[in-house]
Every structure is written in C-alpha cells, then in structure tokens.
Amino acid sequence: MNLTISFEEIRKRLYSGVISDVLDSLGQTKQTMLPFIRPLDDRLVMFGRARTGLYMDVYHKAEHENPYEVEIRLLDDLAADDVVVLACNGPTNRVAPWGELLSTAARCRGAAGCVTDGLVRDTLRIREMTFPVFHGGIGPLDSSGRGKMMTMDEPVDCASVHVRSGDLVFGDADGVVVIPCEHAEQVLSIALEKAMSEDRSRDELLAGRYLHEVYAKYGVL
Description:
Elements: H1 7-13, H2 16-25, E1 38-39, E2 46-57, H3 69-76, E3 82-87, H4 100-108, E4 113-116, H5 123-129, E5 133-135, E6 147-152, E7 156-158, E8 161-163, E9 168-172, E10 175-179, H6 184-206, H7 211-218
Parallel strand pairs: 2-3, 3-4, 4-5
Antiparallel strand pairs: 1-5, 2-6, 2-9, 7-8, 9-10
C-alpha cells in the first residue's frame, strides 16, 4: 500500500462520515466502530496504520511475571503514523489498558493515536498532551490482575470491527472508521473527491440555491 497523499493531508481534508459513506458504497458496511467508542478530545483527528493488541481477562497477578510484557513490546515497536488498536471485548468495567505513560511512549515513537474498546485513565494529562485517544469508557483501574495483552499484530475485533495490523484507522468527533488496507487507495481517492463535492454543495447552499438543485448537480447529501 503506497498512498499518494500524506497522512497529514488526509487528517486535514477528510472526516469519518465521508469515509464511511464511501466504504458503504463499496459494500464495506461493517467498518465503523460501535458508537460507545468516543474521543477523549473531540477536536483531534486520528489517522494511521493499525497496530493491534488482544487482551483477555485475568483474575489474579501471576507471581514472577511481567503482566505488561507484550504491551511494552508493542509500544517500543511503534513507528510514525501507527495507531494502537487494543481489543478488550468491551465495553468493560474491568480493563483500563491505556493511560498517560503509554500515550507518552507512543507519541515519542511518532504514533498517531490509540483506540480501545476498553477503558482509559489519566485522561486530564492525555488531553494536555493533545494525543488522540478513542475509548470505550473512563476509569482508574489498572489492567494488572484484571486483563493482559496476549498477542500483538494479530487480527482482532474491536468495537464490532475486524482490524488487522496495516489497516488504516480514522477517528474524529463522530467516531472511528477502519479502512481495509487492500482498499485504501480506492477508498481515500473517492473520499477526497466526495469531500470536494460536499464543499462545493455547501458553498452553493450558502449562496442561496435550493437543496434539490444542489443535490441534482453534485449528488451528495
């Protein structure tokens, strides 16, 4: 997958609604995460390549074991424009796999954000960092003794969407959409064209033209 437009340009020009519409038009109708996934800061836009982690519930702390081993390995392996996707079978009130220190580590590797259907904590500090994080809930509980990342870079289901490492993840105030990597060029190209048509439609509506005239001209709504 070699995108002909920069990740930063996608963040500036696109939004989740137009990407979701394009995916629907291509028969990819199950690519939007369930609406309980919300941004910590709805002013921020997230776009990048998925790096997945799969959690399971645990009910005690194993002696002489580092419960964060796989989690640390994933964070230290992040690259620029990666998005951490943590599947916790949420929404849940038991597992808070993400917080300030992981946000700091991810940002220093150049990562573009995190989405999890589990909980997040340290939310005030993460907001101060302006690091995009999308979550299934907020709570103070550590994952140690409650949940453990078992695998990294394996396919996961996060908030009802199947995600593979390398798929593209876009998040904004309206939600999170996943673009399968094999469809990325097509989806983004069509989405950019649709976004331009919507801009022209808006301009003509603001100039006083009727909606039926504008829709007949551009075919977007």
